[in-house]
Amino acid sequence: MPNITFTGGGGSDATATATVVDGVVTEITINNPGSGYSSAPAVGIAQSAPPNQGTTIHAPDSQFVSGGGSTTSASLNQTTRLLTVVTDNLPQPALYGSFPNPNNSNAITGQSYNHTWVYRGGRNISDETPTATTDQDSIGMALNGIQLRHYSHGLDNDLPDGTGCPSGNTFNKIYNSAAFGADNGGGATDSSGVYNYTTGNFLVNTWKGSTTTYTVTVSDPGSGNKYYLNGGLTPNIILTEGRIPV
After folding, report:
1. Interior angle at CA 14, CA 124 and CA 17, nearest 5
2. DSSP at 223
3. What percentage of the chain has pLDDT greater than the value 70?
4. In sequence order, what are the residues at sequence separation of 6 or more whose Cβ sits closer than 8 angstroms to the Cβ of residue 150?
5. CA angle 63, 69, 74 (to 5 degrees)
6. Which of helix, strand or coil describes residue 61?
7. According to the model, what pLDDT value does residue 243 have?
8. Alpha carbons 109 and 89: distance in angstroms, whole number
């Protein structure tokens, strides 16, 4: 419901309620005419603030994923609203490109990261300490523990292939992704072997699970089906196809 305000006119305490139909204010009802007005006040209509969604913060802990040799875990402190993510910075179980490659000589290496942020998810609350991002900043994290980094390559830094950067400018790592040997998910490695994303392409192109394949054989010897996984008999098997959660 919009907030109705009265400004000027020399008086005070006037209140009113707006009627909204299909997003349009169709009527204003004076609830209290106030007192002391010597001239008509200016009437203002402003969208009301959304209600606070309660004190319980949505905890994303269980949404972070591990698999394929990579481990990522998270924990949220409900009191301080600090979200801590511990990860080895390996992209599995998401798919990823080949590193090193002709345009990127850096292999993906495991790291030992402990990231902590002030978490605002699940509630209509403001950011008490807004910050500006700069080149190379980690500005977020995917659920497989991979950093989302700023698109800037840094002021006056040349491209890896030696293409010079005009003074006072910066190369865009998204537009020049091929020069950084990025895979089709927008991921690339830096000189420390840290794999990171600079675009959201990984959500569409590589967020599909492990590349591990298995050969499943089913036989019926007359006493019920038997399942063989890569040639070995397995008593229980569930075949599913899906994507890791976003």
Report:
1. 50
2. S
3. 73
4. 133, 134, 135, 136, 137, 139, 198
5. 30
6. helix
7. 45
8. 8
> Residue 188: how many CB atoms within 10 A of its CB?
27
Q: Output the six-digit token pair for 42.
A: 């200016």
Tokens 């800037």 identify what position? 152
CA dist 157 and 178 (Å) reads 16
Lookup result for tokens 């700069």? 134
CB 149 within 8 A of CB 136: yes
Write the pLDDT tens digit of every residue in 170-222: 999 999 999 999 999 999 999 999 999 999 899 888 886 545 556 666 666 55
Q: What is the token pair recorded at 202? A: 């990984």
Q: Which residues pair with 72 in a beta bridge?
A: 87
Of the CA atoms within 13 Å of residue 204, those in its CB half-sphere come to: 5
Q: Please write the tens of the pLDDT for every residue from 98-127.
A: 999 999 999 999 999 988 887 776 555 555
**What burial letters (b/e) apply to 219-243, b meaning 16+ CB within 10 Å?**
eeeeeeeebeeeeeeeeeeeeeeee
pTM, 2 dp: 0.60
Check pLDDT > 70 for residue 162.
yes
CA distance 205 to 94: 9
**Looking at the predicted structure, is the pLDDT value of residue 25 above 80?**
yes
What pairing do the DSSP bridges indicate for beta strands 138-141 and 216-219?
unpaired
Residue 35 is given by DSSP the state B
Instruction: Pick 217 or 144 by higher pLDDT.
Output: 144
The one-letter amino acid code at 37 reads Y
